Amino acid sequence: MTVNDDSFTNWKIREEIAEAMIPLIGKLQRERDVTVLLHSRSLVNKSVVGILKTHRFARQIDGAELSVTETMPFLEALTTLDLGPSQIDLGMLATMYKADERGLSVGQFTAEAVAGATGANKIERREPRDVVLYGFGRIGRLVARLLVEKAGSGNGLRLRAIVVRGGGAQDIVKRASLLRRDSIHGQFQGTITVDEDASTIVANGNEIKVIYADDPSHVDYTEYGIRDAILIDNTGKWRDREGLSKHLRPGIEKVVLTAPGKGDVPNIVHGVNHDTIKPDEQILSCASCTTNAIVPPLKAMDDEYGVLRGHVETVHSFTNDQNLLDNYHKSERRGRSAPLNMVITETGAASAVAKALPDLKAKISGSSIRVPVPDVSIAILNLQLARETTREEVHDYLREVSLTSPLKRQIDFITAPDAVSSDFIGSRHASIVDAGALKVDGDNAILYLWYDNEFGYSCQVVRVVQHVSGVEYPTYPATAV
Hints:
Elements: H1 3-32, E1 34-38, E2 41-42, H2 48-56, H3 59-62, H4 68-78, E3 86-89, H5 90-99, H6 106-113, E4 129-134, H7 138-149, E5 157-164, H8 171-180, E6 181-182, E7 186-187, E8 192-195, E9 200-203, E10 206-212, E11 229-233, H9 241-244, E12 252-257, E13 283-285, H10 289-305, E14 307-317, E15 343-345, H11 349-356, E16 363-371, E17 377-389, H12 391-404, E18 411-414, E19 431-434, E20 439-451, H13 455-469, E21 475-476
Parallel strand pairs: 1-3, 3-21, 4-5, 4-11, 5-10, 11-12, 12-13, 14-16, 18-19
Antiparallel strand pairs: 1-2, 6-7, 8-9, 9-10, 14-17, 15-16, 17-20, 19-20
Helix pairs in contact: 1-2, 1-4, 4-5, 4-6, 7-13, 10-11
């Protein structure tokens, strides 16, 4: 047998194991509300190849690919336990088991590592929480995809309705088509049907009512059986407390804005300050995509090195508020053709840092350039640190933050020397550190941070909604068993 034959045989064995993992992962989610992760990446609804590719990511930990042959025993052990709602990381289990010197079996170690989610310690499954989308544009449709994707157990967030302005003949059919096919993010993973008479879109069995209204004050959500819902405003039309309070109609308990909030509206970046949300807070903002991209790495750098001052320059994909061709626009430069020009514009991300990181005393300035790509942006974060360091130290620190810290769902890390913007379409992280572009000179550090300003931001929005709804479950194992 040749070396190539050996490689192919090994691949087929791993394919077979990954195939056997799929029903176990699905059953844990459906029956017990357990989400199986691999180093913070969900394995739920992954294909065979998707599971194998996710395992390959683990080579960033110790330079070696983590194999399904190593993680499958932990997954099998989980199926024997009396688990409650939780997120369980197979990658962390495998890594910690290798370092454990007590001679425990995989089953014994797993039971101990996830003890907080079993037996008398487990959290009871919660009733599903209704969600309403107000507006159904780029962010609205991506949030809808995520909500449908995460509805597998039936005990999490449940998308009940979208609210839009009437658009004429076959409006609902056209909106369903936009949900089904996306030029950037590809096909919807599942099936979508439309009932025009009932004004509903059915996505993977989820019945979503389409409500037509020109103003929030025209809607009584209880008429549609919606109770205590979280409404996500994707329009950005109202950004202060007074305006957003219009959404607090019968059936709506909380309002989440997918744009920077003004005045006393809390700006929340999940992973950084989501734990500051007061239980009785009814209105909050998820800030902007750029704020979500820069705040987590900024916090990480300040925690370790101290930040005295900084400047962020965002090279941002064009958005729907720009003109395709030169035409009138209330903002002078944004009136020029988006697909044909680089456009200097403003960003509120730097000033929004103070809301998300009130303990950061450093002055952060910012500016932005819109460029002719439809998605994925890069933030260049130039920092003056409180102490001198080296490129190697910062490199290793940010790599470790992306793998094991509380910010691992927000910060990713890539070492590929040929990475370009389109590689990050569909990234679920708020930002991705480009290791090859990192620059450090004494007390000056320059971080290059990629981010999918559509999908990565939508993931952050859903995380905030999960948190305020009470369906954000704890992750096991902890950093130490």
